[in-house]
Amino acid sequence: MRKRAKLVEFKNLLETNKENTRIERHIKDERVRLASHVRKLREKRFMTTTELARSANVSYKSISKIENYKPVRFDTVLKVLKSLGIRITYSLD
């Protein structure tokens, strides 16, 4: 009986890991899309990274992280998008 319980537990762990991997992949894909949009919008406005950072009241490092697919705080992303003239709406439904 114990072997069967451990096998079921192991299978559940594998399924959880698969789901976590899928979620992580989705998050990375969204980071790549966001970075692409931020860079394109910044360049379209002929702004340097430093100018965007000043405009958004965030650090140069934050802009660099966004454009290089690194995680940043959500409020930082909102500040950057707002300074680029992008309005974001979201729902917790």
Which features characterize this protein?
single chain; elongated; 434 Repressor (Amino-terminal Domain); 93 residues; mainly alpha
Describe this structure in words.
The chain has one domain (2-83): lambda repressor-like DNA-binding domains (434 Repressor (Amino-terminal Domain), Orthogonal Bundle). The radius of gyration is 19 Å and the shape is elongated. The model has no long low-confidence stretch (mean pLDDT 84). Helices cover 74% and strands 0% of the residues. It contains 4 helices and no strands. By secondary structure, the protein is mostly helical. The longest helix is centred in the first third of the chain and has 43 residues, at 2-44. The N and C termini lie far apart (42 Å).
Task: Summarize it.
The chain has one domain: 434 Repressor (Amino-terminal Domain).
* CATH homologous superfamily caption: lambda repressor-like DNA-binding domains
Shape: elongated
From the 3D structure, determine the CATH topology.
434 Repressor (Amino-terminal Domain)
Main structural class: mainly alpha
Average pLDDT number: 84
Low-confidence stretches: none
In helices, the fraction of residues equals over 70%
CATH class label: Mainly Alpha
Radius of gyration: 19 Å
| Main pleated-sheet profile | none
Structural domain tally: 1
Strand/helix succession: HHHH
Strand content: under 5%
Number of helices: 4
End-to-end gap: 42 Å
- How many E-type strands? 0
Describe the secondary-structure layout.
Elements: H1 2-44, H2 49-56, H3 60-67, H4 74-83
Helix pairs in contact: 2-3, 2-4
